[in-house]
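Holo prediction. Input below; ligand is iron/sulfur cluster.
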Amino acid sequence: MKTLKIGDNTFELAESIINDLKASENLGLLKCIQCGMCTSVCPAASHTDYDPRDIVKRVLDEDESLISDDIIWNCFYCYTCHSVCPVNNSVCEINQILRQKSIEKAEGISKIASFLTYGDSFLELGIGSIPNDFFNDLIKDIGEEYFELKIHLDDIREELGLGTLILPEDDLKNIKKILKKTGFTDRLTMIRRVKIDEEDTR
Ligand code: SF4
Ligand code: SF4
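Structure of the complex:
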């Protein structure tokens, strides 16, 4: 693959984002006109210093330090920027890819470590579940009803005629195979290992 070059400027970071599996076909990253529409509608930008327009500028400036910058973790993937961009760019997708790069460098692990039990539940049950780390916060936010719901979930499901959450054994085996083949299982192991190492060095 040839690296795009304009004058003396190369766009290796931007190219790596455009060619990432997570990027939409025809992602308009290189067409960004810095109009700031994304920033004007971004809920995260209205409450913090986070600025999606600036994220794109830094990518186009080949600012690799962005990968290690906490600022990329402010986006919560609402896709509002994506829906208004006049050139089909998506800061939402760009952030997803930058975060993956941060995780690959092991720098972003601390940001996602609390989601480990979410990944574990896919391996154990074949479905996602709310991470344990958020349990107390949810009880605080929603109230004791949440705790009651969790405790009596099986009974409530039965009453509603929904059956059990447990998947048939063959389906679970197939899900595990997919998770292994796609690298999900290894990635979960890597995240857990880095988390343990980080805790040991504290
Ligand atoms: S809305 Fe699109 S073109 Fe405008 S600054 Fe944001 S990413 Fe660039
Ligand atoms: S997806 Fe992220 S960058 Fe885009 S509007 Fe939502 S919070 Fe802002």
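The mean pLDDT is 92. That is the main takeaway for now.
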